[in-house]
Amino acid sequence: MNELLCEIESIGMVPVISLKDAEKAGALAKALSEGGIPCAEVTFRTDACVESIRRMKKACPEMLVGAGTVTMKEQAEEAAKAGAKFMVSPGFNHEVVEYCMGHNIAVIPGCSSPTDVEQAMKYGLHLVKFFPAEAAGGVRMLKSLSGPYSGMKFMPTGGITEANMGEYLELKQVAACGGSFMVPENLVEKGDFITIREMAKKAVHEMLGFELAHIGLNMKNRDEAMLAAGMFESVFGFQKSENDNSIFAGSYIEAMKSPFLGEKGHIAVRTNDAGRALSYFKRRGFSFREESAVYKMDGTLGAVYFREEIGGFAVHLVQK
User: Fold this and answer.
1) Domain boundaries, the chain
2) 3 belongs to the catalytic site
3) Which InterPro entries did the record assign (predicted)?
């Protein structure tokens, strides 16, 4: 369960899918994976659920596929045989939870009250679904609900949109957000998987919130760094500020006192979640200078450099 939790948390989003036609499942799985969301919760709201799970796993074996709206142990058994790696129930269903725990199947029960969460803790669970998120009080309610339970992670689902997803993901107790907005039914029915792939990319970029932090210039020594920073201050009014290794001109230009990584210098890119961004890029095949990683006091990633350079510049991610 902890391994599954880490995987879901590294992705950050769980598309909730209700497929009427299992023949579209494989193409949908590829569109989501190529868009940066190799995860899906296929619900038992239609008869095509089990076959859809089977086809999604066949098309994308590495994809994390689970079953949703699981209200009976028989459904969990069917879904698991089809390749589902986790089960999600709308409420805290003891029968489903006990069956899954007894058969070593990951289960994420729905919880909307302290009583529900405490039941999950008794079973040794570390991830629950906060449902229906918006109707149950949204971010404010989740903050209150999660407060006493520091060891529990939540997956808010129900009313989650691209517009409010960021508010939930800002909470440390939130492992990921579940939502149907990532896979509009009308696009699935039309077979427009190109648009779905692009929507997935957009949702990932919205979640990670990439933006330029600063550009670092490799100077030979402190005097050159001071001169470069001074010119930016003189021309643009970017005030100089010196630290041990560099001199900043405003917040966008960093003149290094001695050559650092990168032939020409480095570029820092801010992100809402450096850990998730690292996982996202690794899934895309990028490699990192692990020795450059800087961690915060709470153990979360603060910054790390890509191994590849772009245009002679080293590039690193930095936590906002």
Assistant:
1) 2-208, 211-319
2) no
3) Aldlse_KDPG_KHG, Aldolase_TIM, Glyas_Bleomycin-R_OHBP_Dase, KDPG/KHG_AS_1, KDPG/KHG_AS_2
Residue 1: its pLDDT value, please? 60
- Euclidean distance between CA atoms 234 and 80, whole angstroms: 66
What average pLDDT is seen over the chain?
97
What is the value of pTM for the model shown? 0.92
Region 211-319: CATH code = 3.10.180.10
Averaged pLDDT, 207-211: 97
pLDDT at 24 over 90: yes
Active site residue 41: yes
Strand partners, 246: 256
Q: Given this model, what pLDDT does residue 5 score?
A: 87
Q: Catalytic pick from 7, 9, 34, 41?
A: 41
* Annotated catalytic residue, options 129, 153, 240, 257: 129
